[in-house]
Design brief:
Number of helices: 11
Oligomer: single chain
Number of strands: 15
Distance between the termini: 33 Å
Largest sheet: 7 strands, mixed
Strand order of the largest sheet: 1-14-7-6-5-3-4
């Protein structure tokens, strides 16, 4: 998907072809591993006398296929339950409650109920959560991000249910996708800062091996700076949770070593708010001498002495659009992959000079 192929409004399309889907069965694993279905069942239930070599072959085949055992017993074994697996990286991150509210709003008028799984930005934990939640045969999956392990992607691809990956559209989705382009978001914010006349820009954000969306925003941001003949004058990355204290600490350190900065760009609003409070305490001229901006448009910050410039990530709209796709396709025998691209909005607040 090209980062430039966007219209100025939300766009909904069907990049994938309609196709028949079914969950994988014991027979699939049996054929892939070359042993009987009964032996496969014994291995996966960890019962019976099975040789180590056969057990290893069956487990390897199941993992390669993305097979997840069905915990619904008896007559219900071929059915789905009215649950939608919603898998997010964090409950402490203030971004995701609004996404969940959007999902709940749409599903409350259906028989479907969301159930939450949390991965803590850990790919191994995500695979574990996916395995357990899919084993109950939910009617659909809504999962944050596009970056999956090979096993996770296989489980989703072969679940036989609608899957919606959310929050990000810069990548290759398993099925449907709803979100914003974070590359585009970074480019948009950089252009606003450049157009406002700022030139000495520092960046502060989380360490990014697992925060793929923040990484994409920074890539878009620096690409746009480069086109204007600029580069980041300073940058700093942190581990752990976001908070006002972390933002204050990082801002003090950065301005101490690079005092001629005229703009500070933060990867999220919470550390940006901490930086803003530090600047106000020090009597700095914001936004005249020093501008600041964050990301996410967190409503909690509306009570600050001045409004931080930020960008809305369309959180509630993302949740609502994802839930609609699941609700529309949950009982279908075939599914159509959908793409919903939402356009973020820059809010200048009081910390970005107006042109």
């Amino acid at each position: 998907m090209s980062n430039d192929d966007f219209t100025p409004a939300a766009r909904r399309g069907s990049p994938g072809q309609t196709e028949q889907r079914r969950p994988l069965t014991l027979r699939d694993v049996s054929e892939a591993s070359g042993v009987s279905e009964m032996t496969v069942s014994r291995v996966l239930r960890n019962r019976g006398d099975v040789s180590a070599g056969t057990r290893e072959r069956v487990l390897a085949a199941a993992k390669r296929l993305g097979y997840v055992p069905n915990k619904i017993a008896g007559a219900l074994a071929s059915s789905r339950v009215n649950l939608v697996a919603v898998i997010i990286p964090s409950l402490s991150n203030m971004v995701f409650p609004e996404v969940i509210n959007g999902i709940s709003k749409i599903l409350e008028d259906t028989e479907l109920q969301p159930v939450l799984g949390v991965t803590h930005y850990n790919p191994e934990q995500e695979d574990k959560v996916l395995y357990e939640m899919l084993s109950w045969r939910p009617s659909g999956v809504i999962i944050a991000g596009l970056e999956r392990s090979e096993a996770g992607r296989a489980m989703l691809s072969n679940a036989g249910i609608p899957v919606v990956e959310i929050m990000d559209v810069d990548g290759d989705p398993v099925d449907s996708v709803v979100g914003i382009s974070h590359h585009r978001a970074g480019r948009m914010m950089a252009q606003e800062i450049i157009d406002a006349g700022y030139r000495r820009i520092g960046f502060m954000g989380t360490k990014m091996p697992q925060d793929h969306r923040a990484k994409k925003r920074l890539e878009g941001f620096t690409e746009t700076l480069a086109k204007a003949g600029l580069e980041l004058a300073d940058q700093e990355f942190y581990e752990g949770g976001s908070g006002f204290a972390k933002g204050r600490e990082m801002t003090e350190a950065m301005l101490g070593r690079t005092p001629d900065l005229d703009f500070l760009y933060y990867s999220n609003d919470l550390i940006g708010a901490g930086g803003l409070l530090y600047c106000l305490d020090k009597g700095l001229d914001v936004p005249g001498t020093l501008g600041l901006a964050g990301f996410n448009a967190i409503e909690l910050l509306d009570g600050l002495p001045c409004r931080l410039a930020t960008m809305d990530s369309c959180r509630r709209e993302v949740g609502e659009a994802a839930a609609r796709i699941i609700a529309e396709q949950a009982n279908a025998d075939s599914f159509t992959s959908e793409q919903v691209v939402l356009i973020p909005r820059v809010t200048p607040g009081d910390t970005l000079r107006q042109r």
